[in-house]
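Troubleshooting log. The previous structure file for this entry was overwritten by mistake, so regenerating from the original sequence record. Sequence copied from the archived sheet and checked twice against the printout by T.R.
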Amino acid sequence: MQSKVNIIADDMGNVIRQSSTSSEYGYVRLQQDRVTFGNGGWVKKSNISTLLHGKLEDLQSIGLESMTTLPGKIIIKEQFEAFSTNDPDRDLKYAGDTGIICCVDGEPIYRKTFFVADATAEDVLLAHNNGAAIKEANASTSFNLEKKPKKATTAEAFGFDSSEEKVEEIVDEKVEELVVEEEETFEL
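Regenerated output below.
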């Protein structure tokens, strides 16, 4: 259950983009909607993307500019070795927004997506075993529904000093109206 691999152009319609580090190389952004079935019986629809890298002349020679889809699949590959020796922290697998790196016996998992021409290719996934640390991080950041949020006073909401004296002082001030009387004139 997967959709086609879509070729994504940038805001200006360019399919092939030049690398920022070398004018000889470029890349194409690919995207695919996927449906996966987890071990716990959960169905998950996700949108995954990857970059197809190459020399600009090679990318241009296959006619990608005139195409909207590619036959194949975007796969997820997880492993214990960093994908990049220059930036080993680049592809670490994190548990959502917790900031916790997924690990197996203290060894970090690295995760990256790749385009493959074989539409039957399978993901290579590693099951982490540091769930306790992830649960603890989720518990510390989740909202406790049993506690009601503290209501702010008007003074706090508008940035005033919330001490009682100043609030009372503002409330107790009398406002005097200036009334200007005009002379009465009658014309006949």
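Residues 75-145 form one domain. Archived copy saved in two places this time.
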